[in-house]
Automatic annotation (TrEMBL), chain A:
Record-linked InterPro entries: ABC_transporter_permease, MetI-like, MetI-like_sf
Biological process terms in GO annotation: transmembrane transport
Residue ranges constituting the ABC transmembrane type-1 domain according to the UniProt record: 75-285
Alphabetical UniProt keywords: Cell membrane, Membrane, Transmembrane, Transmembrane helix, Transport
Bilayer topology annotation: Multi-pass membrane protein
Family affiliation: Belongs to the binding-protein-dependent transport system permease family.
Protein known as: ABC transporter permease
Length: 298, 294
């Protein structure tokens, strides 16, 4: 790439480049970089209240956090939520894409059915599912009633609430991820599968030996997105459970919201946010230094 | 790899077409199983929405009772529309979505052009800093962003909801990829004809990136139409609240309201996007695809 005498290489071009970048850079710095750094700084101070200014307290918030049972519950719930949403939604997305990509009756309608939850607001989805889960009247209990099974308070019982919330999330996400698999599948030359078939490979073998490895980059991309979503999606909790019963469905970001905007303890909320940020940073580092290397074998 | 594909193609085509009869019978069962599985999942996926439609269009007596001859009604929609300031919420959401999109397109275009076609000291570091936002989104920085918005005196305004999302790493990345595929010769031709930096951007790059703009716009609009947590935090009046927050407030506070009306309100809130999606299904799917492939 040679620099154009008047164009993109010289000092003038450098100034132009920075000027073009400036508006976006200012907003990015103000609402992504600054808050990430400020979160750490403010987590070392008490929350200013009335005429009492913020006071430096070092790691006190972090010490409180270690002793805070709700924090541990929320963190544990979030890990269960991540495990319960990531793998099922990826597996379902892959199955959906394989089906919709094959010659199957009613393919267009199927694709529509799978993808529709993606365009609905999570709040709306939560409203609909809340009705589903209603004891006695909801669809679940009506179906159970047909088999003579008793009503269950799906969202009101600590044993089932988190699972119920996970199901809703998988329903919402799988169709979105399907799209990426569909794109990847359409780029695989059919000859590869045909060649494997000629060599006597069964459908199952063909999937695991040919298709699955070729989908690996997509799986990685979807995996990263699903992981970020597992720590970001909390909208449905506001409608369905409010983190209850007894914090059984509280996730980290939801707990941060409660601490920061219901109890107005922003210092402690900043410390909690640091945990969330370090989890996301770990995901980012894993992506760049480990997974990125593993998929480039094809 | 392409060589081996060509080779396989040449080898496979003539032989593969007549499948051995044993395989065919096997394939038929296989196909039946697959079709059944696909449709079982499809019905499971459609059921919640169909159920919502049923509830919303029938009197509440039929909310949980299926009767083919149940009378249809629009009463639930009328009641929901009258019970909460939905017209205002629609307006707020529309303004919000348009503001964010306009900001994202302008800022993203400028920044993407800088990254794609200019070399300046610090460019690669700046680009890496931009990409951080893909991992650490404004969604998780609500505590500090609220502090900033409060300090700026913008709490409970539409700019407050829009500002954190206006510079989008995703948009910048997507447009940069597109700009990089545009031949430099076009730019040089425009330069010879006397176009300045912004003129070239406007006359050469923007028109050629139209499909990317369309794809990005669809993804952005559907994302921000549905966004909830940040708007919930920075708004507290009817005058600024978007639909999602309005819907949550409506469904959350009025315990006396029955399911038929809440469901009608839910469909109202998701309606515009849902209808747009049903009408332009192909474009939606293509857009999400285009936006998702990296």
């Amino acid at each position: 790439m040679t620099a154009h005498p008047l164009g993109n290489g010289g000092r003038l071009a450098a100034i132009h480049g920075w000027l073009l970048l400036l508006p976006a850079a200012v907003l990015l710095a103000a609402f992504t970089h600054y808050p990430a750094v400020a979160t750490f700084w403010h987590s070392l101070f008490t929350t200013p209240r009335g005429n009492r200014p913020a006071r430096f307290i070092g790691a006190d918030h972090y010490r409180d956090m270690l002793a805070d049972p709700i924090f541990w519950t929320a963190l544990q719930n979030n890990l269960v939520f991540a495990a319960g949403t990531i793998l099922p939604s990826i597996a379902l997305a892959m199955a959906m894409a394989l089906w919709v990509n094959a010659r199957i009756a009613g393919r267009g309608l199927l694709r529509l059915a799978y993808f529709t939850p993606t365009v609905l607001p999570m709040i709306a989805v939560a409203n609909i599912w809340l009705f589903f889960y209603t004891p006695d009247y909801g669809l679940f209990d009506q179906v159970r009633g047909l088999f003579g099974l008793p009503a269950v308070n799906w969202l009101g019982s600590g044993d089932t609430a988190l699972g119920a919330v996970i199901v809703v999330t998988v329903w919402k996400e799988a169709g979105f991820f399907m799209i990426f698999y569909l794109a990847a599948l359409q780029q695989i030359p059919p000859e590869l599968g045909e060649a494997a078939q000629l060599e006597g490979a069964s459908r199952w073998q063909r999937f695991w030996r040919v298709t699955f490895p070729l989908l690996m980059p997509t799986t990685l991309f979807v995996l990263i997105n699903a992981t970020i979503n597992a720590f970001r999606l909390v909208d449905h909790l506001f409608v369905m459970t409010r983190g209850g019963p007894d914090n059984a469905t509280s996730l980290l970001l939801y707990y941060i919201y409660e601490v920061g905007f219901k109890f107005w303890d922003q210092g402690y909320a900043a410390a909690l946010t640091m945990v969330l940020l370090s989890l996301l940073a770990t995901v980012a580092l894993l992506k760049f230094f480990w997974l990125e290397r593993k998929v480039h074998y094809q | 790899m392409s060589e081996s594909v060509q080779l396989t193609r040449a080898l496979v085509r003539p032989i593969a077409s007549p499948a051995p009869s044993g395989l065919l019978a096997d394939g038929r069962i296989d196909r039946l199983l697959n079709t059944t599985g696909a449709w079982a999942l499809g019905i499971l996926w459609l059921a919640p929405l169909l159920y919502a439609v049923w509830t919303a269009f029938h009197p509440s007596a039929y909310s949980t009772r299926f009767d083919l001859f149940a009378p249809l009604t629009l009463e639930n929609f009328r009641a929901a529309w009258a019970a909460a300031p939905f017209p205002r919420y629609f307006l707020n959401t529309s303004i919000l979505v348009a503001t964010i999109l306009a900001g994202q397109l302008v800022l993203g275009t400028l920044a993407a052009y800088a990254f794609a076609r200019f070399s300046f000291p610090g460019r690669d570091i700046a680009f890496a800093l931009v990409l951080i936002q893909l991992m650490i989104m404004p969604d998780v920085l609500v505590v500090e962003n609220y502090r900033s918005i409060h300090a700026l005196g913008l709490v409970d305004t539409i700019p407050a909801m829009a500002l954190p999302y206006m510079a989008s790493a995703f948009g910048i990345f997507l447009l940069r990829q597109t700009f990089k595929t545009i031949p430099r010769e076009l730019e040089e031709a425009a330069r010879i004809e006397g176009c300045g930096t912004l003129g070239i951007l406007w006359r050469v790059y923007v028109p050629l990136a139209k499909p990317t703009y369309l794809a990005y716009a669809l993804v952005s609009v559907s994302h921000h139409w549905n966004n909830f947590l940040w708007p919930l935090i920075v708004t507290n009046t009817v005058e600024t609240r978007p639909l999602t927050v309005g819907l949550a407030v409506f469904a959350g506070t009025d315990q006396g309201i029955d399911w038929a009306i809440i469901t009608a309100a839910t469909l109202l809130a998701s309606g515009p996007l849902l209808i747009a999606f049903l009408l332009f299904q192909r474009q939606f799917v293509q857009s999400f695809l285009r936006a998702g492939i990296r």
